[in-house]
Amino acid sequence: MPEELAPDICVVGGGPGGIAAASAAAAAGVSVILVEKGALGGGCLTAAVPSKALIAAADTYEALRIGPSLGVSGAPLQVNLNRVRDHIVAATTEFARALTPERLAVTGIQVIQGEARFVDHATVAVGERVIRARRFILAVGLQPAPPKLPGLDGVETMTFADAFQLDRRPSHLIILGASRYALELAQGYARLGIDATIVSTGAPLAGEDPELVAVVVDRLRAEGIRVRANVAVHNIARRRNGVRILLSDPADAEADGAEIALDGSHLLVASAGVAATAALGLAAAEIAVDGSGIAVDGNLRTSNGRVYAIGDAVKGTRSVARAELQARSVVRSILYRVPRKGDDWLAPRVAFTDPGFATVGLTEAAARARYGDVEVLRLPLAENARAHIERQTSGLVKVVATRGGRVLGAGIVGRDAAELIAPWALAVANRLTLAAVEATLAAFPTRAALGSAVARLDPEKEAAGLTAAARRRIIALLRKFG
Ligand SMILES: Cc1cc2nc3c(=O)[nH]c(=O)nc-3n(C[C@H](O)[C@H](O)[C@H](O)COP(=O)(O)OP(=O)(O)OC[C@H]3O[C@@H](n4cnc5c(N)ncnc54)[C@H](O)[C@@H]3O)c2cc1C
Q: Which of 32, 81, 402, 448 is the Cys-Cys partner for 25 at CB 3.0 to 4.6 Å?
C-alpha cells in the first residue's frame, strides 16, 4: 500500500524558489511537504554559487594584476585551475551545509527525496508515496534545451555545471549565449587566462538598457573577450580537438559580410533552457505549458486551479530574487486568497561582471512606454571620490523617475553594482521619490554616495519637494527682507 500524505501545500522542487515557498508556508503554520529529486539548493548549488566562486578567484587575480598601479606588486601571478576548482567545490559545499532536510524539518517543512510526478489532477506520486495536497507549487526550474542551430546536436558541448569542473584547460572556450550568466563566466575564465569568445544570435543582456550594457561589453572586449552578438550561425561541426562554428557577424567590418570560421576547443551552451517538466506528468494534471515555461495567470496559477508555478519554470527574468519574490507572494495569495500583485519587476537583475551590472524596476525604454514623459538622471562613476581612490572609475548610475520624482527604475554599471542597487530596490518597491533618496546620507568616501548625488541632479525637485521655479520665487521673496 502506498503511503498517503495530505498536506496543505506540496512544493515540488527544492531550489531557492521552492525552499522560499515552503518556508513561507511553514511560517504561516500550515502543513507543507517539499519534494526534491536531487540536492536541496537547486540552481544556487549547481550554478549561482559555483559561478560566484569562480568570479571571486578571477577578481582576486585582477586585483593583484592591477596592484602595481597602486604601488603594490609581488611575485609573478599564476593560476592553478585545479586549485580554483577545489575552491569552487569548497565554497559550494559550505553553502550546501545549511541546506539539509533536518534543518528544514526544524522549521516545519517535511522534505521528501525523490522525483515528483502527477498521476491525476490532484495527486503527485513520489516513489511509493502519494501526495494529495490542497495546493501544489511547482518550483522545478529548468532543463537544458539547446538552441536549434545547424549541427549543434552533432558536437560535444558543455553545460554550466561542466564549466565549473574543467579537467582540461580550454585553449579556446566558445560560449553560446550572451545572458548575464554567460558574460560573467566568460570574463571569469578570461581573467584566469582562458581565451574566450561569446557567440550569440541575439543582443547581450537582451531586454536591458543598451546604454548600460554597452559599458560592460566594451570592457569585456577591452580585456580580450570577443563578443559576437546578433550573429547568424550557419553551421557547427566537430573538428579535431574541438568544434568549428561558421557564422556571419554584421558587426565585423573586416569580414564585410563574408562567412567567418571560429575554432574552439570547448563549446559551452549557455542558453537558458525550458521548464523542467519532462518527468512531471503535466498532462495527467491538465497543466499547460507556454513555450519555454509553465503557463500561469497573474496569480501564478496554472491551468489546473490547484497548482501554481514559480521561479525559473515560469517565463521571465531568471534569478533567485525573482523566484523568492514569487514564492512569498504565491503563498500569500494561496493562504489569504488575495490577488497577487504583478511585482516581478521589483527583483533586481544583476550580472557579476566587472564592472558589475545591476538594474531594478523599469528601464528607460519601458518607463517611456508606460509613462510617456519621464525624468532620466545619469551620473558617471568618475564623479565619485571612492571610485577615484580605488582607480575604478568606469561605469555610471542611471535613474528613471516620473516627472513628479517617483523612482521607477535604476541601473548601475560599476564596481559593487549588485550591492549598490539595494537602496534603489527599496525606493522602487516603496514608491519613494528622488527626494527621499537624496535625503539618505552615505558616509564619505563610499560608492553608496552615488545614490544621493544622482538624486540631487533632479532639476525639478529637491528635498523640500519644491519645483525649481518655486524655489527661485521663494529666494527672491526672502531677499527682499535683507
Ligand atoms: C551560471 C549561472 C549563474 C547564476 N547566477 C545567479 C546569481 O548570481 N544570482 C541569481 O539570482 N541567479 C543566478 N542564476 C539563476 C538561478 O540559479 C536561478 O534563477 C534559480 O536557481 C531559480 O530557482 P528555482 O527555485 O526556480 O529553480 P532551481 O534552482 O532550478 O530549482 C529547481 C529544483 O527542482 C528540482 N526538481 C525539478 N523537477 C523535479 C521533480 N519532478 N521532482 C522533484 N524535484 C524536481 C530540481 O532538482 C531543482 O533542485 C544563475 C544561473 C546560472 C545558470
A: 32
DSSP codes of every residue in 190-232:
HHTT--EEEE-SS-TTTTS-HHHHHHHHHHHHHTT-EEE-S-E
The answer for residues whose C-beta is within 8 angstroms of residue 478's C-beta and 6 or more apart is none
Which atom of ligand 1 is nearest the CA belonging to 350? 9
Distances, alpha carbon 380 to alpha carbons 70, 218, 392, 476, in Å: 22, 16, 11, 33
Does the beta carbon of 276 lie inside 6 Å of ligand 1?
yes
When pLDDT is cut at 50, 70 and 90, the band that residue 463 belongs to is: very low
Of ligand 1's listed atoms, the one at least distance from the Cα of 114 is 43
Q: What is the pLDDT of residue 61?
A: 96
Q: Is the peptide bond before 380 cis (omega within 30 degrees of 0)?
A: no
Ramachandran angles phi, psi of 4, nearest 5°:
-105, 130
Contact present, 261 and 246 (Cβ < 8 Å): yes
pLDDT in tens, 293-319: 999 999 999 999 999 999 999 999 999
Residue 311: CB within 6 Å of ligand 1? yes
Q: Whose CA is closest to atom 7 on ligand 1?
A: 48
Gap between the Cα atoms of 163 and 41, Å rounded: 19
The alpha carbon of 139 and the centre of ligand 1 are apart by a number of angstroms equal to 9
How much is the pLDDT for 128? 93
Strands 142-143 and 274-275, sheet pairing: antiparallel
* Length of the chain, in residues: 482
pLDDT value of residue 343:
82
Whether this prediction's pTM lies above 0.90 is answered by yes
Q: How far is the CA of 163 from the centre of ligand 1 (A)?
A: 16
Tell me the CA–centroid distance for residue 101 and ligand 1, in Å. Answer: 18
* Gap from CA of 360 to ligand 1 centroid (Å): 21
Q: How far is the CA of 281 from the centre of ligand 1 (A)?
A: 20
